[in-house]
Write a structure and sequence with these properties.
Strands 8-7-6-5-4-3-2-1-15-14-13-12-11 form a 13-stranded antiparallel beta sheet, covered by helices on one side. The longest helix has 18 residues, at about 1-20. The protein is built from one helix and 15 strands, in the order αβββββββββββββββ. The protein is mainly beta. It is globular, with a radius of gyration of 17 Å.
């Protein structure tokens, strides 16, 4: 039953992307794995909008049993870029149907305003790259990125020609492995487990 439910939900997500025009642009899918088992799927897309902006989206759904507790996760990321700079972004993460963390960022013409579960703040540095840029841009030129989940900047370390990592302000180590310039696999080292993601298309 659970497997059938996930297949139907993944199909619905694909249809959602198709109806939004994303599959006609660029869409990448990843299996989400924990403790060797596939627990969900993540879709990453970039679309050229009619107004000249670049729209990035990430949607993921997963279900895992941590110790004796079953948990469902859903996350939704969005970022808009124009003329090479971010103009807005948002992030929403749900756990068992309840909001775990969220953030909204927009450019007001002078600075970037942030509203999130951690409060309000502002900054003036224009995010040239965010964590979604890693899936589509040349990762070799990325030295610093804007991490949407925390609405903050992080420096990137290039381990070798095909591996980079950054440690986010929430204390997690994020590692990306590339093959022929594209993300092939990822590791997200969390407190209770390491989440692995493997590209499927």
């Amino acid at each position: 039953m659970n497997e059938y439910f996930y297949r139907v939900r993944n199909l619905c997500i694909v249809l959602l992307f198709m109806s939004s025009g994303f599959l006609s642009a660029q869409t990448i899918a990843f299996d989400i794995k924990v403790f060797g088992s596939v627990i969900g799927r993540m879709y990453v897309s970039r679309n050229h909008e009619p107004d000249g902006t670049l729209l990035y989206k990430i949607v993921s759904d997963s279900k895992a049993k941590v110790l004796w507790i079953s948990k469902t996760y859903h996350s939704d990321f969005e970022a808009r870029y124009k003329d090479g700079k971010m103009i807005s972004c948002s992030h929403l993460e749900n756990e068992n149907g309840k909001t775990k963390r969220w953030a909204k960022v927009y450019y007001d013409g002078k600075s970037y305003r942030v509203e999130s579960d951690k409060g309000s703040k502002s900054f003036t540095e224009a995010p040239l790259y965010c964590d979604m840029s890693l899936y589509f841009d040349d990762h070799r030129k990325i030295k610093r990125l804007f991490y949407l989940a925390e609405a903050d900047f992080n420096d990137v370390t290039h381990i070798n020609a095909n591996t980079l990592e950054f440690k986010s302000n929430d204390g997690h180590r994020n590692v990306y492995y590339f093959e022929n310039g594209s993300v092939k696999t990822m590791e997200f080292h969390l407190a209770l487990a390491t989440v692995f993601m493997t590209r499927v298309n």
